[in-house]
Amino acid sequence: MLKTIRNLAIGSIASLLCVSCTTGGGGGASTPSPTAPQGAVPLDALREIGGTTPIPEEESTDRRVHPIGELRVGDTLIVAYTEKDSCGIFILHRKSPEKAPLELISGWPKNHAEGSHRYPAGPYNFASAPSGSGLFASLSCSRNAMVIEISAPGSKAVSGLRGATDTTTTTDKPGSLYAVIASRPVREGIISTLRPKASR
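The structure corresponding to this sequence follows.
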């Protein structure tokens, strides 16, 4: 069974309560969509990577996910994707198949007033949850970038980067890893905002 956590609505698959979600303002007059930063490529236009996703067979015909990034943290595989007007990650326990995969989903902000501007190429909506494998994952999602923060006790090796993915760590959160999925200019801009605190 795939456990799914959404920051805007509960999906049809078995779901958990979102631990922390931010959607920003929602009412009132609409605000024009933000202008994309120079060199930005919308997430859903990035090249798709190969591989499989843990979507149950009974739902596979109703969903069209677009995997665009992948990394391994220790024995955990994280696959980043877009789907319609949202982005998300699958967290798979490679050496503990008895543990259900986790899916964390965040919808794109609808306009410039919704969400936060914690990173360049925003605004971002946010969702987070424990993965059940000793990891705590949070997802910041905009139309042009995804920033995944992975917190894990102890040191876990990072490997298997695929797609439009880069990673960095910070000295103020030594147990955390940041994975950025975006076009190269946007990735570089986001990581540069972390580098004053970066340990590498």
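The two ends are 37 Å apart (CA to CA).
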